[in-house]
């Protein structure tokens, strides 16, 4: 059985949140939800998440999972807000502890901040399976962009996070802590080994030159034939050299500092201080 998939595009962060529904049981998973954040005034809003909630309720769906493909550096996750409104378990790849350890140090988090992923309800190992109603789903560890990146495969659909983009945009950057171009290449080959007709759903689209409409769905066959960075015939050496060269030209994501402080906490804000307010830190001259 194949899932029904509905994507919600956030134009502020170019992120796509997905609702992945089992047609038979009407249970669903939400993948990579967005919590709106205004860096100019530090205010949070739930417009993006509320669109997802309205859709879930309108379709009569029950949320089983809130799935993170990795700890995002470009948007804050709305996982906790959605869980409070709709239920479901928040899950991520088991290697998230490696990411937490790096950013615990960068943000000088409290000594009791755990770096074992226990902020999440479920940590998935490579090859692990789980259910969305009657729909069987599997986890592929696909590191390279970050150490904790995973791809979720449900029926004929795979949710690849930032590992791949649309064929005319290429692949994820690999210059974040723990990132590695050769590892990313190997991870993409795992995705490319899925059946050619497998639908691939991107976490972002940035509308490259020559295209006038945002797109976030492609197939294994299309990526293998047309991806500008890693199509069939591009060697590991060529990919690594081109990826590293491109990474040297990229600026840090605009929301990397606020987003990671929330995302390594599974969507929780840092604990309020004695005035009742939560604060996000901006380490100076550190990245």
Could you explain how this protein is built, in words?
By secondary structure, the chain is of the alpha/beta class. It has a single domain, classed as Ribonuclease Z/Hydroxyacylglutathione hydrolase-like (Metallo-beta-lactamase, Chain A), CATH 3.60.15.10. Helices cover 24% and strands 24% of the residues. It is built from 7 helices and 15 strands. Strand 10 and strand 11 (135-141) form a beta hairpin.
Structure characteristics:
six-stranded mixed beta sheet; Metallo-beta-lactamase, Chain A; 287 residues; 7 helices; alpha/beta
Uncertain stretches of 5 or more adjacent residues: none
Q: How many H/I helices?
A: 7
What is the CA-atom radius of gyration, in angstroms?
18 Å
Helix content: 10-25%
Task: Compute the number of strand runs.
Answer: 15
CATH class value? Alpha Beta
Structural class: alpha/beta
Percentage of residues in strands: 15-25%
What would you give as the CATH superfamily?
Ribonuclease Z/Hydroxyacylglutathione hydrolase-like
In quaternary terms, these chains amount to single chain
Q: Report the average pLDDT across residues.
A: 97
CATH topology: Metallo-beta-lactamase, Chain A
Amino-to-carboxy terminus distance? 45 Å
Q: Major sheet: size, sense and barrel closure? A: 6 strands, mixed
What is the total number of structural domains? 1
Name the shape in a single word.
globular
SSE diagram, text form:
Layout lengths: L3 E7 L4 E7 L5 E5 L2 E5 L4 E3 L1 H12 L3 E6 L8 E2 L1 H8 L2 E5 L2 H11 L15 E3 L4 E4 L2 E7 L8 E5 L2 E3 L21 H12 L6 E3 L15 E3 H7 L9 H12 L8 H8 L24
Parallel strand pairs: 3-6, 6-8, 8-9, 13-14
Antiparallel strand pairs: 1-2, 2-3, 4-5, 4-7, 10-11, 11-12, 12-13, 14-15
Helix pairs in contact: 4-6
């Amino acid at each position: 059985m194949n899932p029904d998939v509905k994507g919600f595009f956030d134009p502020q962060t170019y992120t796509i949140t997905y609702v992945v529904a089992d047609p038979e049981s009407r249970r669903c998973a939400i993948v990579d939800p967005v919590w709106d954040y205004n860096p100019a005034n530090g205010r949070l809003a739930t417009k993006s998440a509320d669109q997802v909630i309205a859709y879930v309720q309108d379709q009569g769906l029950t949320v089983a999972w809130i799935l993170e493909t990795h700890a995002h550096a470009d948007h804050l996750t709305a996982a906790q807000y959605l869980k409070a409104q709709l239920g479901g378990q928040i899950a991520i790849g088991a290697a998230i502890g490696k990411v937490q350890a790096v950013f615990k140090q960068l943000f000088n988090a409290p000594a009791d901040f755990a770096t074992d992923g226990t902020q999440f309800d479920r940590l998935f190992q490579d090859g692990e399976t789980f259910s969305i109603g009657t729909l069987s789903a599997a986890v592929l560890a696909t590191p390279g962009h970050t150490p904790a990146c995973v791809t979720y495969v449900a029926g004929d659909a795979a949710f690849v996070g930032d590992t791949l983009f649309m064929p005319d945009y290429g692949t994820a950057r690999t210059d974040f802590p723990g990132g590695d171009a050769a590892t990313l290449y190997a991870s993409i080959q795992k995705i490319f080994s899925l059946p050619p007709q497998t639908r691939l759903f991107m976490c972002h689209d940035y509308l490259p030159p020559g295209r006038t409409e945002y797109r976030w769905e492609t197939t294994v066959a299309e990526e293998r034939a047309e991806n500008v960075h890693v199509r069939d015939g591009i060697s590991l050496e060529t990919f690594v050299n081109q990826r590293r060269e491109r990474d040297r030209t990229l600026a840090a994501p605009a929301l990397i500092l606020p987003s990671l402080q929330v995302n390594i906490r599974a969507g929780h804000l840092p604990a309020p201080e004695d005035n009742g307010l939560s604060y996000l830190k901006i380490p100076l001259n550190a990245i």
